[in-house]
Amino acid sequence: MGPVASDPRIRTRLRKPTAGRPRPRGSGTACRQPARSSHQHRSRHREQLNAHALTSAPVALGTTSTQHRRYPAGSVPARPALQPRRHPRTVKTYARDFFRIPSPRGHRTPALRVAAGIGIPLIILVLMGRTDLTIFAVFGALTGVFGRVEPHWLRLKHQTFAGILMSLSIVGGVISGGYGINGWALVGIGTLIAGVLSIVADVLRLRPSGPLFYIFAFMATASVPFEGQLWEAALTGVASVGVALVLGFMGRLWARRTEPDRQLAEAPLPAWSRIYAQAGRYVVALGLAGSIGVMSGLGHHYWAMVAAAAPISAVGASGGLVRAVYRIIGTYAGVLLTAALLTIQWPPLGLAFLIAALQFAGEVFVISHYSIALVFMTPVALMMTEFVAPGPTGTLVADRALETTIGAVIAFFVILLTTRKQRAQERSLRQTQTN
Q1: CA-based nearest residue to 147, from 204, 220, 217
Q2: Which of 405, 382, 406 minimizes the C-alpha distance to 395?
Q3: Residue 70: phi, psi to the nearest 5?
Q4: Would you call 56 helix, strand, or coil by DSSP?
Q5: Closest by Cα among 295, 290, 374 to 331
Q6: Apex CA 155: angle with CA 372 and CA 238, to 5°?
Q7: Burial letters for 46-56: b for 16+ Cβ neighbours within 10 Å, e otherwise?
C-alpha cells in the first residue's frame, strides 16, 4: 500500500459514501465532481422520463400525475400515442391542403423500387425487339405498388397474392380480346370481375385495397390488339411480377443488419357487411361508368371504369369524395403534360426510360398528394399504349379527360349516396377529437 493510500485522512476521503452518509466536503481532488454539460443534463432528464414511463400507467386526457397507478416490471400496458387535435374540415382547409406541396421524404425508396420494376422489363423487351409485349410487362410490374411500407416478409406475401391476381387479369384480358369481346359484353364482364376481386382483395388484406389495378389490367389488355401468343403475354406478365417481388424483398439483405425483425401483424379483417357493401359500390360505379362510356362513343370506355374505381378505394368516405375531385384535376394536368411529351418522337428505349421516370415521380406523391401523382401517372397510362397501338395525340388526351370526368363524377355520387352513415360517424369522431 503506497503512502497516499496508507494515510487515514486520504483514505477517509476515498471511501465511497453509503446510504444515509453524506459525501465529505473538502478541497481534495477525490471530492470534486466534473461539471455536467447541458447534453448530460438532457440525457439524465430523458432517462428519468423513460423510467417514469416504465413504472406508470397510461394517463388519460384530463387526469393528473397523482392518478398514476404503479405496475410491476414487465406488466406495463402500452402507452397509446396521443392523437393531435383535429379541427372541422372546411373548404378553406381543403384548398390549403391542395396547394401545399408535400415533402418527398420517406417515399423515394418505394418509388424507386416501382420505377425499377417497370424500367428493367421495358428495357429488356425493347432490346429484344418485342415492344408488343410492353403493356403486359408494365401491368405485371405494378405488383410493386402493393405493401410499399410493410415489413419485408409481409410485403412478399401480399405482393405474391397481388402478382397472382394481376397475372390472372392479364391472361383473362388477352383471352377476352382474342375472342373479340368488347363493348357492352366487356363492360359487363369487367364489372363482375371488379366485384369479385374487391372481396378477394379485402379478404387478403391487400394494400392498396380494391380491384383498381386488376380491372385496369384486364380491360386494357382486352382492348389493345395483340397478335402474339397467349403464353407470351402470360410469361411476360409473370416475369415482370417476379422482378417486382425480388426488388420488394431485396431491402431485407441490409435491413437484417440495421434493424430488428418487425412484427408480421396484419390489419384486422373488416366486417363482412362492409366488404360486401364496398364490392357493391364498385359494381354500381363501374357498371354505370362503363355503360356511359360505351354510349358516348369514345374509344377508351374502360378509362371511365378505372376513374370510377380509384375514389372508391380511398380510406374513408370523405377521403373518397376528395379523391374524386383530385383525380379530375390531376388528370386534366396530366393530359396536358402528355400532349407536350408526345410532340417529341421518342425512340423505344427513350420511351422506356421516360415511363420509368414518370412512374417514379408519381409514386413519390401518390400517398401524400394524389392530384400531383396523377400529373405524372396519366402520361404513363397513355404512353404505354404507344408501344402497341400508337394513335393521334389529340384524340388520345381528349378521350382520357372526358372518360376520367365521367368515371370520377359517377364515383363521387355513388360514394355520396351510399356512405351517409359512415360520413356521419366520421364527422362525430372529428367533433369528439376537437372537443
Answers
A1: 204
A2: 382
A3: -90, 140
A4: strand
A5: 374
A6: 85
A7: eeeeeeeeeeb
Looking at residue 429, the DSSP 8-state letter turns out to be: H
CA distances from 409 to 8, 281, 303, 399, 402 (A): 93, 14, 13, 15, 11
CA distance 370 to 133: 29
The partner residues of 56 in beta bridges, in order of sequence, read 70
What pTM was computed for the model?
Answer: 0.75
Q: In the structure grid, which three cell numbers stand for residue 417, read together?
A: 349516396
The 3-state DSSP class for residue 70 equals strand
What are the pLDDT digits (tens) for 292-314? Answer: 999 988 878 899 999 999 999 87
Cell 410492353 belongs to residue = 134
pLDDT over 90 at 86, yes or no: no
Give the pLDDT confidence of 233-244 residue by residue, as tens digits: 999 999 999 999
User: Given CA atoms 34, 37, 39, 45 in this order, what sign does their dihedral have?
Assistant: positive
What is 181-198 written as a DSSP string?
A: --HHHHHHHHHHHHHHHH
Domain boundaries, the chain: 103-259+267-434
**Top mean-pLDDT range of 102-106, 235-239, 342-346, 380-384:** 235-239
Q: Coil, strand or helix: which one is 313?
A: coil
The residues near 390 (Cβ < 8 Å, ≥ 6 apart) are none
Query: Which tens digits make up the pLDDT trace of 42-80?
Result: 555 555 544 444 444 443 333 334 344 444 444 444 455
Cα radius of gyration rounded to whole Å, the chain: 30
Residue carrying the nine cell digits 379523391: 323
C-alpha 253: how far from chain center: 22
**Cβ neighbours of residue 403 closer than 8 Å, sequence gap 6 or more:** 293, 298, 300, 301, 303, 304, 307
